[in-house]
C-alpha cells in the first residue's frame, strides 16, 4: 500500500501520470470555468466522501455545469481509482469538473462542444505541523452572495492564491480574508475559529466556503460540551482572542500563534484547540469511507 499516484482519472480512464493531459480548449483552463473538491485519505478511508461529493455537485448545479455521471457513480469511480493506485494513507486528492471543451474558447457557454470534463488527481500529504502559523489580514476581499457565491468551490481561485502570496510576501504564513462588510470571512484555503473565555466562534458561512471540517468541528464541540456559535466577527475579535486556529481538509486543524505580529495566547497551541484537534483526529475513522469497498465493483 502506498500514497504515491501512478494514474490520473480523466473522463473514466486511468491515464499514467506522465502522459495525463486535457485539451487546451477546456473551459476550466480558459476561464476557470469549473468546480472542484479537495479531500483526504487517512488510514484506508476517504474522509467525508459523501459530504465532499454532495458539495461538488451543489457547486456544479450553482454554476449550471452538468456532471456526466451521478454522485454515486463518481464516488464508485473515485474509490476504484484509489484502489487501482494502491492508495491507502496520507493522500490529498482533487476531483475537478469543468464545463468541458469549448471551441472557439469564448465566454459564451453555448460554445461548449462536449460533455463536462472530469479529472481526479492528487498527491501524498503529511500531517499538519502543530507549531502554529503567523497570520495577517489580506487586502483581498471574499465575494458576498451579491456576487459569485463564495459557497461555490469554483476553479476561479485567484483570490486565494493572491491572499496567500500577499501573506507570504509579507513574511506571514496565511491571511484572513474579509467579506465585503469588513467582517472575517475565512483564510486563503481554510475556515477560521476563535476561542475567547472558553467559547468558540466562527464566521457565518455566507461569504465563505461552507467548510466540511468547520461543520464537523462544530459537531465535535457540541459533543465535547464546548460552547460554539457562528457570529459576525471583526479583526478586533482576533486581537482579543485567547486562541485562534484554521481548519480545512488540507489544513486539518492549525493553530495560529501570531496575528499581525502580535502573539496569540501564549504563542503555542491553546488547550481548546488541542482538545478539538484530538477529537477531530480520533473521529477520522468514523467519518471515513473504506477504499476497499470498491474491491468487487
Ligand atoms: N475555505 C476555502 C477557501 C478553502 O479552499 C477550504 C478548503 N477546501 C476551506 C475553506 C475549508 O473547507 P473544507 O473543510 O471543506 O476543506
From TrEMBL:
Molecular function GO terms recorded: transaminase activity
Record bears the keyword Transferase: yes
Cofactor(s) this protein requires: pyridoxal 5'-phosphate
Any one GO BP annotation for this protein: amino acid biosynthetic process
Keyword Iron: no
Keywords (A to Z) from UniProt: Aminotransferase, Pyridoxal phosphate, Transferase
Matches recorded under Pfam families: Aminotran_4
InterPro entries: Aminotrans_IV, Aminotrans_IV_CS, Aminotransferase-like, BCAT-like_C, BCAT-like_N, Class-IV_PLP-Dep_Aminotrnsfr
Family of this protein: Belongs to the class-IV pyridoxal-phosphate-dependent aminotransferase family.
Protein name per its UniProtKB record: Branched-chain amino acid aminotransferase
Organism of provenance: Naasia lichenicola
